[in-house]
C-alpha cells in the first residue's frame, strides 16, 4: 500500500490555491480592460502551471494570429473538448484564411455543443468552403466608430472593451487616427480583426474629421461612437441585439457609469466610479445644454449617414452633431448599463472642452455658435438666455 505524504499534499494544495488566485487576478484585469497587466498576469499563471488551459486560451486573445494558434493548440491538446479553445482556433484560422483548419475545429466545437452561439456565428461566415475562400454573408449589424489621437494606452482599454463583448451579431470597429504613432499601430494590430478598419488619416488633427471619415466607411445597420478614453461595460451589444426599439429602426440611449481617474502616469489611476441612470435626462432642454454623453447612443445608420461633425468647432462638436440627429428623431431610453465615461478633473486632463457650460469666454462663444445652428422655440430661447446670463452675458432671447 502506497503511503501518502501529507506535507506533499499540503504543498500541492497551497500551490493550486496560489495559481487560482493568480488566475482570478488575471481575469479581473482582463475584464476591466487592463490588457497589458492581464497579459503579464496570464504569463505568470503559465509559469506556475504551463498546462492551465484558461490562461492559454485567454492570453491567446491578446496576441497575433500565429502565436495565438500555438497557445490554443496546446490548450486543445491538453483538453480536446475545451470548446472555448476550439471556437477561438476556428476564429484565428478564419482570420488567416485557412478554411480547412477552421472547418475542422469548428465542426468539433459544434459536435460538442450544437447551440454554441459563437460557433454558429463563425459557421455563418463561410461560403462554399470547398472553394477555400472567405466571404461574409451578411453586412455587420453594428459599426463602432473610435477616433483617436496619441492615446494608445487609453485606446487599448476602449478596444478591449469592444472585443470582449459577447454578441450574436456581426460588428465592425473603425478606428481613425489623426497622426502616425507606433504605439497606436500596435494596439490596433492587437485588437482589430479582418472585418475591422484602421485608418491613419492626414490633415488637421481633431475628432470631427476622423468621425466624418469613419461614417463614410461604416457598413453596419447601426452606428455607435466611442471616444478612445472611454469604454463599454460587458453585455452592451448583446443587450442591443434584444432591444426592440433599436431593431425597429429607432435611435436609443442607455445608462452609463462615470469613472473619475488621473492620468499623471502612463497608466491611468482610477479614483472612483458612480452609476448614472440616464432615463429622463434627455428632453428638449438638450437644445439648451448637453445632457447625455455621446457614447450612450446607438443610431440607425440611415439616420446619421448624411450628417457631419463640424470640423471648425473647438469643442462641443459632439453635442452639435447630436442636436442634428434630435431635430430628426429623439431617441428613446434603453435601460442597460452600457458605457463607462472616464473623466479627469486634475491637471492630467487633455480634453479640449469642459462639460460645464460657459466657464470662460471661449465656451460662451461656442455655445452661441451651437445656438445659432439650431433654432428653437421661444420657451427654449428664454432658457438659453438664462444660461448665458449666469455666465455674465446678457442677450435678448430672440437672438438665441
Word description of this protein:
By secondary structure, the chain is an alpha/beta fold. The chain folds into 3 domains: 6-131, Tetratricopeptide repeat domain (Serine Threonine Protein Phosphatase 5, Tetratricopeptide repeat); 142-343, Alpha-Beta Complex (Spore Coat Polysaccharide Biosynthesis Protein SpsA, Chain A); 361-399, no CATH class. Helix content is 45%, strand content 15%. The chain contains 16 helices and 9 strands. Strands 1, 2, 3, 4, 5, 6, 7, 8 and 9 form a 9-stranded mixed sheet that branches. Strand 6 (252-262) and strand 7 (269-276) form a beta hairpin. Helix 3 runs antiparallel to helix 4 and helix 5 packs antiparallel against helix 6. The radius of gyration is 24 Å and the shape is elongated. The chain starts with 5 loop residues before the first helix and ends in a 10-residue tail after the last helix. The relative contact order is 0.08. Residues 128-137 and 352-358 have low confidence and may be disordered.
Short description:
The chain has 400 residues and is an alpha/beta fold.
Class based on secondary structure composition and strand pairing: alpha/beta
Tell me the quaternary state: single chain
- CATH superfamily caption of the largest domain: Spore Coat Polysaccharide Biosynthesis Protein SpsA, Chain A
From the spread of the alpha carbons, the general shape counts as: elongated
Distance between the termini: 93 Å
Per DSSP E runs of 2 or more residues, the count of β-strands stands at 9
